[in-house]
Amino acid sequence: MSAVPAGDGLWCRRFHPAPDASERLVCFPHAGGSASFYFPVSAALNPNVDVVAIQYPGRQDRRKEPGVDSVEVLADRVAEALGDLTDRPTTFFGHSMGAVVAFEVAHRLEKAGQKPVRRLFASGRRAPSRHRDEQVHKRDDDGLVAELRELAGTDAQVLGDEELLRMILPAIRSDYTAVETYASGGDLTVDAPITVLIGDNDPKSSVEEAADWSKHTTAGSEMQVFTGGGHFYLSERAAEVTALLRKHFQDGA
After folding, report:
1. Does 174 qualify as catalytic in the annotation?
2. Per CATH, which fold does 12-251 belong to?
3. Which member of 34, 42, 96, 221 is catalytic?
């Protein structure tokens, strides 16, 4: 992997370095997810887009580090690691927990004086101001694993490997604690336009809850609903999501 021109190597992964790309996409994983979830996106957009995938502590090569159980703290650390992104236009894409982490990071970068990201793609997540009383992080290990199986967002190979599963459960619990205790005021906004992506069968967010992302931007929003899509619609509809991103970068919108 080449040297990281924007972003700390501990937090950022470039699977397909694109030093001559004119655009950047920063991807934020879901709860329990890792940077490698976005490997296919990186491959598909290379070499035209510099794809950076965020690696949270507590998983894969960072598995010996404790997880971060606060979205706000996680956003502080990611914003610091990303540093100055003014060398090229940057777009954020976050799925599930990653959507609110991306939103909070964008807000922090704006407060620090950086110009807004070109667009924030908020996938599979209700708006920051829409709260549910979720308590998955308080379940025992078996209950946590049951949640992962129900959402079908964790590699089946991992769920079948008891030793590996027990190794990553602390990080997953930290992620669930972070996102389930996260609460943003309805008045928190970013100056970037927001594209909301949601499956209409997502148990974690209704289409109505997702639509309220429009209240969190001063630059307008749009929404695409994936008919029949669950929480991880983007795995089944990967080609459509990638095409949407490719069009975004080609159109300069």
Report:
1. no
2. Rossmann fold (3.40.50)
3. 96
